[in-house]
Design a protein that fits this description.
Elements (H helix, E strand, L loop, with lengths): L1 E3 L11 H5 L11 H7 L1 E13 L2 E8 L2 E7 L2 H11 L4 E6 L6 H18 L3 E6 L4 E5 L4 E3 L15 H7 L7 H8 L6 H5 L3 E5 L9
Parallel strand pairs: 1-2, 1-9, 2-5, 5-6, 8-9
Antiparallel strand pairs: 2-3, 3-4, 6-7
Length: about 210
């Protein structure tokens, strides 16, 4: 199966400085609709707690970047994909706030609700930093080599050990994708239900 890493990061944040540094956090250029038409069936949705307009939303984000997509609760994410993209499978990650008890409690409570209603479309539900897997379906084996590890920081390692993991020859996630993504997306990659090709810049590198 074909998956897109940080699926909503084609969007802008509205913050001039963060948008100017998008090469360090943007993982996709195509919209969700375009990704789906390219053959993507697994989507990676990362949320950040955000208090706006008198409501507490889940703002979609990656690292420090909060893009212009938000959901009132996790169930709305499930409904969005179930209604518009009927073959979609989703992974939901709490991108930040894993050390905040109230945020984690809200995320866990909403996770229980969606697992009771939408388990058939959910691949994983994860809290990031510290990494906690609330749910993992075991639907398929993940080919991790095609996702970007350029900027992942392991808090359990020293600064030097973290720096050694960086891909010095890649100046952005896009150049990493060009180097590490498969050179060609095949029919088998799209149709194989046992293996997930979880990719940055789907539809850009490689060209479909």
């Amino acid at each position: 199966m074909l998956g897109s890493h940080d699926s909503f990061t084609y969007l802008k944040t509205g913050n001039i400085l963060i948008d100017a540094a998008s090469r360090f956090w943007r993982c996709q250029e195509k919209t969700i609709d375009e990704q789906y038409k390219c053959g993507v069936r697994v989507f990676d949705v990362r949320v950040i707690d955000s208090n706006e307009d008198g409501f507490i939303w889940w703002r979609v984000g990656h690292g420090l970047a909060k893009v212009k997509q938000r959901f009132i609760n996790l169930e709305n994410i499930c409904l969005y994909f179930k209604q518009q993209y009927p073959e979609a499978i989703i992974r939901i990650i709490l991108e930040s706030g894993g050390n905040n008890e109230s945020i984690v409690e809200r995320f866990k409570n909403e996770s229980e609700t969606i697992l009771n209603k939408y388990k058939e479309i959910i691949w994983e539900i994860v809290i990031k930093k510290p990494w906690i897997y609330i749910y993992q379906s075991g639907m398929f084996k993940t080919i991790d080599d095609v996702t970007c590890k350029l900027f992942n920081w392991n808090l359990s390692e020293s600064i030097w050990d973290n720096l050694k993991h960086f891909e010095i020859t890649s100046s952005s996630i896009k150049t990493w994708a060009k180097k590490h993504n498969p050179t060609k997306i095949t029919k088998k990659m799209k149709e194989d239900k046992k293996i997930l090709y979880f990719m940055d810049y789907v539809g850009t590198y490689p060209k479909l």
